[in-house]
From TrEMBL, chain A:
GO terms for molecular function: fatty-acyl-CoA binding; flavin adenine dinucleotide binding; glutaryl-CoA dehydrogenase activity. GO terms for biological process: fatty acid beta-oxidation using acyl-CoA dehydrogenase; fatty-acyl-CoA biosynthetic process. Residues 18-130 form the Acyl-CoA dehydrogenase/oxidase N-terminal domain. Residues 134-223 form the Acyl-CoA oxidase/dehydrogenase middle domain. This is Acyl-CoA dehydrogenase. PANTHER family: GLUTARYL-COA DEHYDROGENASE, MITOCHONDRIAL.
Automatic annotation (TrEMBL), chain B:
The keyword Lipoprotein does not apply. Heterodimer of an alpha and a beta subunit. InterPro entries: ETF_a/b_N, ETF_b, ETF_beta_N, Rossmann-like_a/b/a_fold. This is Electron transfer flavoprotein subunit beta. One of its GO terms (cellular component) is cytosol. One of its GO terms (molecular function) is electron transfer activity. Keywords: Electron transport, Transport. The keyword tRNA processing does not apply. Pfam families: ETF (PF01012).
Length: 390, 259
């Protein structure tokens, strides 16, 4: 039995999925195994990837904005979208990030809060992977606390004029459109900014040791002039970006378990074939204890993800519940990745195997879309009724 | 244009291969899938459909689990499916299978083109397409790496070690395609959802009017009498280079008829 089949046989989780959900999972897995996995180590090492080609592929598979309705989007359940994220992240968190930023952040912002013209203009080509989007909320000085943002949009006649900078923006250097959140005289508002607008600049963030198979950028806006129609009309205040983040966090709840699963499958295979002190590494109690504990955490994490998926599909998920999933699954995934690394010994630190890549990636995954601490504070507030953010 | 594609459900080559007591391939106790070589035929059909109009029907002969091969083809974009399924079919050889396919294709309606893969990835005989063409009285254009349909003719190129033949036939015709012809698509999410609503007919021998005596283990002209695992590879020969390594290597390759 392959490690994949062995894990499935142990957990029986496949039985919780519908036939279509299983077919979707195997489709994404097969695509990732054939087309992405053979290149991941090189992309990671180079800190570069053919994002446009991949986006086009993902559009063809229907994975971009797949949980949104209409405008060329897939109209899938939340759970199905989560499953696609899990399988993408089993390949690499950077590729899942591409899917998340496109579908859950940029497209969701337009879909939820955009005008009909903005939806018609952007959503079909973004769903097809012909246009790439990014989402600019974080600034150099404001991450966990975006309310303090300094990027400003000033009214000038019918136009808006944008000044400021955003930091850590996934897909920023490859995007055709940026959703930019900025302070106005009244509230924080969202803007749909074509990246070829004069005054827009994207510089690549170099020297990352994590999420290297993903483009990250610093954006700057200098007297960037937008027509009045560029504003997202349907939302005011931080609720706008935060509700998009909640969507992306939901995908990460599933995704992180994909990375963990890939590590555990790799370690299972390795423990079976690696001989130490004359027998297979998997035959030692210490190894088995590690493997058993990791399989258990993986199972719990996937069950939590599916639970949240069914809640969301039932229409009743809260942000605090998404935080439970994000906190647990990122935290456990990185623990699993590090533990698997020990099983592979020195081989575990090379890009020959996916483990160190996943472990490093998960540092970012734990940080973006709300750090673990932020999720603890959200959950703490839900439990006690008292906010400890300040 | 109506296109019929013959597809086969085969054991997953990644898994262990097992046989039943009667020396037939175990198709039930193992994970199976649409034969990868048939994906090229499905893709070729979808491309033709997309460049004009028409309908793609996939036909499979196999046990219950073989419905999966039909489903995968529908997920890729075929329009409808036919699954010939009957306990009495178990053990059918290539000739018996071609009989069933022929009857199913006739029953499925009007067609212009019948497509098949290069070979199944389990039996790897490559004979069913030729047998099927004979049974349907169709011209056969087998193992081509290109395919064009224009007016009433189909044209394809068959590449061999020494030459490339361009073969043309009038429609209706049977064509089998190689794995060089295209790059099969992955089913998309929309394809997966759409496939649920596409019609699939399941036909028994009685539905096809085929006598059980003509198929199955008893009705087959050939049968597997025994099988054995391929012996483990022998240890390789090590050529020690004493200044004449190149010559020795060349001699070895020549002796094995590799050069
Ligand atoms: C690879 C990558 C890609 C990213 N992509 C995007 C993107 O596409 N778009 C975007 O807008 N952003 C993106 N981000 C930014 C990400 O969302 C932020 O990094 C994140 O919100 C944390 O902000 P910060 O880095 O400024 O950390 P800070 O907010 O400065 O936090 C530093 C530390 O302080 C802790 N902390 C903060 N507040 C509290 C508190 N009240 N109590 C206790 N501890 C606290 C944090 O948990 C953390 O441990 C990305 C980040 C990375 C690494």
């Amino acid at each position: 039995m392959t490690p994949h089949a062995a894990l499935n046989a142990l957990t029986g989780i496949d039985g919780l999925l519908s036939e279509e959900e299983r077919d979707l999972a195997s489709m994404v897995r097969k695509y990732a195994d054939d087309r992405l996995r053979p290149h991941l180590a090189d992309w990671f090492e180079a800190g570069d990837l053919p994002a446009r080609e991949i986006a086009k592929d993902l559009g063809g598979l229907g994975l971009l904005g797949m949980h949104l309705d209409g405008y060329g989007c897939g109209g899938s359940s939340a759970t199905a979208y989560g499953i696609a994220c899990l399988e993408m992240e089993a390949a690499d968190s950077g590729l899942r990030s591409l899917v998340s930023v496109q579908g859950s952040l940029a497209m969701t912002a337009i879909h939820k809060f955009g005008s009909e013209e903005q939806k018609q203009e952007w959503l079909p080509k973004m769903a097809a992977g012909d246009a790439i989007g990014c989402f600019g909320l974080t600034e150099p000085d404001f991450g966990s606390d975006p309310a303090g943002m300094r990027t400003r949009a000033r009214r000038d006649g019918d136009d808006w004029v944008l000044n400021g900078a955003k930091m850590w923006i996934t897909n920023g250097t490859v995007a055709d459109v940026a959703i930019v959140w900025a302070q106005t005289d009244a509230r924080i508002r969202g803007f749909v900014v074509p990246t070829d607008t004069s005054g827009f600049e994207a510089r690549e963030v170099k020297h990352k040791m994590s999420l290297r198979a993903s483009k990250t950028a610093e954006l700057s806006f200098t007297d960037l002039r937008l027509p009045g129609s560029a504003i997202l009309p349907e939302v005011k205040g931080l609720r706008g970006p935060l509700s998009c983040l909640s969507e992306a966090r939901f995908g990460i709840v599933f995704g992180a378990m994909g990375a963990a699963r890939d590590c555990l499958e790799t370690a299972l295979e390795y423990a079976d074939t690696r001989k130490v002190f004359d027998k297979a590494l998997g035959g030692y109690q210490i190894t088995q204890m590690k493997l058993a504990d990791m399989a258990l955490e993986l199972t719990k994490g996937v069950l939590l993800a599916l639970h949240l998926g069914r809640l969301k599909d039932g229409g009743g998920i809260t942000n605090e519940q998404v935080s439970l999933g994000k906190l647990n699954n990122c935290r456990e995934a990185i623990k699993i990745a590090r533990e698997c690394r020990t099983i592979l010994g020195a081989n575990g630190i090379t890009l020959e195997y996916p483990i160190i890549r996943h472990a490093n990636n998960l540092e970012s995954v734990m940080t973006y879309e709300g750090t673990s601490e932020v999720h603890q504070l959200i959950i703490g507030q839900a439990l006690t009724g008292s906010s400890a953010f300040r | 244009m109506n296109i019929v594609v013959c597809v086969k459900y085969v054991p997953d080559a990644q898994g262990d291969r097992t046989f039943k007591d009667d020396n037939t391939t175990d198709r039930e106790g193992v994970d199976g899938l649409l034969s990868e070589l048939d994906e090229y035929a499905v893709e070729a059909a979808l491309k033709l459909k997309e460049s004009g109009e028409g309908e793609v029907t996939v036909v499979t002969v196999g046990p219950e689990a073989a419905a999966d091969a039909v489903k995968k083809s529908l997920q890729m974009g075929a329009d409808k499916g036919v699954h010939v399924c009957d306990d009495a079919i178990h053990g059918s050889d290539a000739a018996a299978t071609s009989l069933l396919l022929a009857e199913a294709i006739k029953k499925s309606g009007e067609y212009d083109l019948v497509l098949a893969g290069l070979a199944s990835t389990d039996g790897t005989m490559s004979v069913v397409p030729a047998m099927l063409a004979e049974r349907l009285g169709l011209p056969q254009v087998t193992q081509v790496s290109t395919l064009e349909v224009e007016g009433g003719t189909v044209k394809g190129r068959r590449d061999s070690d020494v030459a490339s033949d361009t073969i043309e036939a009038s429609l209706p015709a049977l064509v089998s395609v190689t794995d060089q012809i295209n790059e099969p698509r992955y089913p998309s999410f929309k394809g997966i959802m759409a496939a649920k609503k596409k019609p699939v007919e399941t036909w028994s021998l009685a539905d096809l009017g085929v006598d059980a005596e003509r198929v199955g283990l008893a009705g087959s002209w050939t049968k597997v009498t025994s099988f054995a695992k391929r012996p483990p590879r022998e240890k390789g020969e090590i050529v020690t280079d004493e200044g004449d390594g190149g010559t020795k290597l060349a001699e070895y390759l020549a002796a094995q008829k590799f050069v």
